[in-house]
Specification:
The chain is mostly helical. The chain has 7 helices and 2 strands. A hairpin with a 7-residue loop joins strand 1 and strand 2. Bound molecules: glutathione. The site of glutathione has 9 residues, from helix 2.
């Protein structure tokens, strides 16, 4: 899909400019502006809505459609990362900013424990939800990259192999480059 990435410097407060607040009054990224769906363009301001919409548009295996276990498993694992790993990690970030050290530690531990437990998903499969790369891998790679310095990689060989394989994918490289 043709698109243009517009990076914002959150530390410089670019998410609070009047132009950006007109797009997302909550002043949060990411935001997707869909020029193809009418004027004014439809604005999506929830990362997971954006992911699900784009996966649907992309077809292929990101959201499997076969009438077997692969589709429900991809959803199950996708939501595992969204709710059990990413959400507590975000909470720990906000607790840290509030100076609530005990809460931060608790939430960080909860997020990391869930993430490390998910290595079992890779016991008999190359990807988080089976034989193909799905939305579950996209949700997982974003948070594994963010928490990579807290992971004892020697103790998690399957996770290490999966992370190296996924990070080498051209699409993932392009996505990660948006954060440079
Ligand atoms: N539930 C929202 C959360 C968005 C969110 O919290 N974004 C953070 C970055 S990960 C942000 O824009 N923070 C800037 C700020 O709060 O000023 C989503 O998943 O899109």
């Amino acid at each position: 899909m043709a698109h243009r990435v517009v990076p914002l410097d959150l530390r410089a407060g670019q998410q609070r400019t009047p132009d950006f607040l007109a797009l997302n009054p909550r002043g949060k990224v990411p935001v997707l502006r869909l020029h193809s769906l009418g004027a004014p363009p439809l604005v999506l301001a929830q990362s997971n809505a954006i992911l699900l919409y784009l996966a649907q548009q992309a077809g292929g295996t990101l959201l499997p459609r076969e009438n077997n276990a692969s589709a429900p498993l991809a959803f199950e694992r996708f939501f595992f990362y969204v709710t059990d790993v990413i959400a507590p990690s975000h909470t720990s970030f906000f607790l840290k900013n509030e100076g609530c050290e005990e809460g931060r530690r608790l939430m960080e531990r909860r997020s990391l424990d869930a993430l490390l437990a998910s290595e079992t998903f890779l016991e008999n499969a190359p990807f988080m939800a089976g034989q193909s790369f799905t939305l579950a891998d996209i949700a997982a790679v974003s948070i594994v990259a963010a928490l990579s310095s807290s992971i004892d990689w020697a103790q998690h060989p399957r996770l290490r192999r999966w992370f190296a394989d996924v990070m080498a994918r051209p699409g993932v490289r392009r996505g990660m480059a948006a954060f440079d």
